[in-house]
C-alpha cells in the first residue's frame, strides 16, 4: 500500500478515524490521497483490499478495510461497514466491484 500512498497520509487518516463509529469513507479516502490517484493506481489499491482476489470487496472484507492500510488499524463497526457497503454497492448485490458494481 505504501508503494501507492504516503505513509504519513495513511497515519493521519487512520488517526482521524481511530474512534469507533467515526469512519467517514469520503474523508478517509481523500486524506490518504486516493482521490488524487489515477484510475490504474486506484485499481491497484482495490486489488490490495480485495483479500480473496475475487474481483469484489465483500462485506467481511470491508469490516477490516482499514487493516489494508495499516496492520494495526481497527476494524470498522457493523454500522460503519454497512454504510460503506451501501455507498459503494451500486447494483445492490452486497459487494463492491472496481467499478462500483
What's the quick description here?
InterPro entries: EF-hand-dom_pair, EF_Hand_1_Ca_BS, EF_hand_dom, Parvalbumin. The protein is mainly alpha-helical.
Q: Can you offer a commentary on this structure?
A:
One of its GO terms (molecular function) is calcium ion binding. InterPro entries: EF-hand-dom_pair (IPR011992), EF_Hand_1_Ca_BS (IPR018247), EF_hand_dom (IPR002048), Parvalbumin (IPR008080). Belongs to the parvalbumin family. The protein has 101 residues and is mostly helical. It has one domain (7-96): EF-hand (Recoverin, domain 1), CATH 1.10.238.10. The chain is built from five helices and two strands. It has a two-stranded antiparallel sheet. Helix 1 runs antiparallel to helix 2 (25-31). It starts with 6 loop residues before the first helix and ends with a strand. The mean pLDDT is 94.
Question: What key attributes describe this structure?
Answer:
single chain; about 100 residues; mainly alpha; Recoverin, domain 1; 5 helices; globular
Amino acid at each position: 500500500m505504501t508503494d501507492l500512498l504516503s505513509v504519513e497520509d495513511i497515519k493521519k487518516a487512520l488517526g482521524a478515524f481511530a474512534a469507533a463509529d467515526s469512519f467517514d469513507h469520503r474523508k478517509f479516502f481523500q486524506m490518504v490521497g486516493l482521490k488524487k490517484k489515477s484510475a490504474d493506481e486506484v485499481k491497484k489499491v482495490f486489488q490490495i483490499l480485495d483479500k480473496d482476489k475475487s474481483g469484489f470487496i465483500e462485506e467481511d472484507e470491508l469490516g477490516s478495510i482499514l487493516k489494508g492500510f495499516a496492520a494495526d488499524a481497527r476494524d470498522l463497526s457493523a454500522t460503519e461497514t454497512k454504510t460503506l457497503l451501501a455507498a459503494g454497492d451500486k447494483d445492490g448485490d452486497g459487494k463492491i466491484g472496481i467499478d462500483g458494481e
